[in-house]
Structures are given as C-alpha cells and as structure tokens.
C-alpha cells in the first residue's frame, strides 16, 4: 500500500489521499496556501515537483491557455514509480485528458455531439425514469439507507451505463473496474493492495477485455448507443487506434460515474447540514438548477489536474520554466474569496454559484457536465417530494482520494410522505 509521509501539512493536502477525509481541515489549509503562497511549490520523493495553483484566477487562466499549458500523457498526479512502470509496460493512459492540440480536438469530436445541451436534453425523460426507480428503491428500503452507496453510486452508474449501452447485469463488473481505476485511492474500494501497480494493470486489462468484446459487437451490429459511436469512431479519416479507443471508453466510464456520484452524495450531505436550504429547495424545486451549481462548487468532486508549461513563463511573478508543471486545485479555486462571497457558506441561491470552476474551462472543459447537472438537478427535487424529515443517521465518511473524491458513506433516515 502506498502511503505518503509528508512533513508540511500544506503540501500534504495535495499529495496524500488520506488528507481528503477531513474536508473542513483540508479547506483551512488550502485557504492558508492561497493567502500566503498562491503559487506553491511542492517537492516530495514520490513525485516530480510541481506548483499548486489555488486561486480561481490562476486555475482559470492556465486552463484556458491550452497552447501554453499542455495536459500531456501525465495530466493526472501519480507516484513517479507508477508513471514509469505504466510507461515501461506500454500502459500509459491515453484518453482525452492526456491529449493536446489537434489530437485532442479530433478525438473529442468523435463523441462531442452526444454531450451537447440539446442532445442531453433529449435524454431527460430517461434520466427522470432512472431517478424515479431509485426513489422507489429508497421507499422499499423503508426509511433508512446509506445514501452514497445505496443511491448515489448505483444511480449515476446506471445513467452512464444506459448511455453507453452496457446491460444492467454487467453494471457490478463496471463498478468494480471504475473503482479500481486511478481515481480511487480509498483502501475500502481497492481490494487487495499487496501489489498496487499490479492492481492498476489488472483493472486496465479488465476494461480492455470488456470493451474489446463490446467494440467487436458494435462493429458487427451498430445500435444507437455511445459504445457504437466510439467503436466506429474515426479521426482524420482513419479508425480510432486501439489504445485511444480503450482509453476513450475508460475516461467516459470513470469520469462519468464517480464524479457525479460524489457530487450527489456531497450535495445531500450539504443539504442535511443546512436544513433551511433543504426546506427552500423543497418549497421551490425551480432552485434545483442553481443548487446544482452550488453543490458542484461546494463538493468539487474532481480535485486536481496537472498542466505542463510549453515555454518559460511566470505566474504571479513566480518563474515557471518550460517543462515544469502546475497542479490546478479545483476545490481551492472554488472557495476563493476573491470570486465567491463568503466562500465557505453553502447557499443554493447564491448569485455567484455559476462562476464555479469545478468542471474546468477551455479545451478540456468537462465533456459530461450537462449530464452531471441533469442527474443531480433531477434527483434532488424528486427525493424532497417523496420523503420528509430526511436526517443524518451517523457520521458522513469521506473517501481517501486526491483525484476524484467526496463523501463515500452517508447514513440517513427519512419518512415516506
Ligand atoms: C459533478 C460531476 C463532474 C465533475 C465535477 C467533472 C469535472 C471535470 C473536470 C474538472 C474536467 C477537466 C476539465 C479541464 O481540464 O478543464 C473534466 C473532464 C471530463 N469529464 Fe467531467 N466531471 C463531471 C461529470 C462528468 C460526466 C457525467 C461525464 C461523462 C458522461 C464526464 C466526462 C468527462 C470527460 C470525457 C472529460 C475529459 C474532457 C477533455 O479532456 O476534453 N464528466 N470533468
């Protein structure tokens, strides 16, 4: 099992997944970094050094200057050894978030139409039906559940698998694979960690096997699902390469699931901890759209991405040489007092909620943001209509994760209306 021993607690919050379990303390330290050292250099034996960006302005500016700042094949922070090992084995990730320039643009185009607002709007009926089924499941559970694991995880998984065309009986397999991917650092979801690198390799192979069969099937018998689009996708007039195709499936499956599930469970936690906000939403379901923006700002399920300077440059007077890298801290940027009034106040009516940067910005702006928004804004009003007296029934537990994370157990009780 990998453990990070980091002396400086301010550096630790960006390196050590275990620091995410206490979001209040995490934000106190992030506030300190933003106020004193907004371009904060982190050095540690486990990783190549990087600068952390904690202000909204810096995260925004770096994200949108895609020529100067590249994602590269190493846009997700991982231990040096893991990076090197995956590269040596020819398994380095090669998804949209690991591409730049023309390569990124042509690959994104393969599925882009599927994720446009009008296309996603057409799936509103299907999302609503899936949400209804999970409200029903909560009813059957009789007034008590772990909202994160019993509802948020399977609901968001089902929506994305429905889009893909993965049959419901394969969803447990998909859950296992997405949780075994690079996003999940929490020991609870990682299974046997005596060989952490072996586990990552095994997960990639599991995806390769599953989606390999799916590709062959969709090439033989195309349907109207997203898997068919990826299986038959072309870039510059040629079929997608095998590696790019595999990673396309992986990024949409992983990015489309854990992120939104943590958004929904974290949103529910925030509403439980701010009962007046829950009542406001119950009374006026039209607040759900702004509430969803606020929830994504508040929870920031994607915690970080890296960018690499393509030329010597500087940020706030700090020189950054060509090839050096910066870490975009979305949770820190989403609580920047320069942009958000009283940033540590959860308020579903806040007028500045839409300034959130939790979906990124620029060429890599979250492809699935429209789905994520609809999933959350559809589910919450339905829950509040169906149930009264929703209460916390135990301590919320946050996942150990420095890439994608949030509340992983949320015990609640509720009364049927
Ligand atoms: C609350 C839920 C979500 C959050 C907070 C989130 C956040 C993000 C962030 C921060 C990025 C990187 C943006 C950047 O570099 O500027 C991203 C990229 C991406 N997201 Fe999401 N996401 C969510 C849900 C989803 C869903 C539901 C899907 C798929 C259905 C999805 C698919 C993707 C993909 C494919 C990319 C890569 C885009 C690219 O590099 O061009 N995400 N997301």
Can you walk me through this structure?
The protein is of the alpha+beta class and about 425 residues long. The chain has one domain (about 10-415): Cytochrome p450 (Orthogonal Bundle), CATH 1.10.630.10. The protein is about 50% helix and about 15% strand. The chain is built from 18 helices and 14 strands. The strands form 5 sheets. It has a 5-stranded mixed sheet with strand order 1-2-10-7-3. A 3-stranded antiparallel sheet has the order 4-14-11. A hairpin with a 2-residue loop joins strand 5 (about 235) and strand 6 (about 240). Helix 8 (about 145-165) packs antiparallel against helix 14 (about 260-275). The radius of gyration is 21 Å and the shape is globular. The structure holds protoporphyrin IX containing FE. Protoporphyrin IX containing FE binds near residues 63, 108, 160 and 368.
Helix content: 40-55%
Compute the number of structural domains: 1
Taken from the alpha-carbon principal axes, the silhouette is globular
Kindly estimate the percentage of residues that lie in beta strands according to DSSP.
Answer: 5-15%
Total of DSSP H or I helical runs spanning 4+ residues:
18
The CATH topology is what? Cytochrome p450
Main sheet: strand order: 1-2-10-7-3
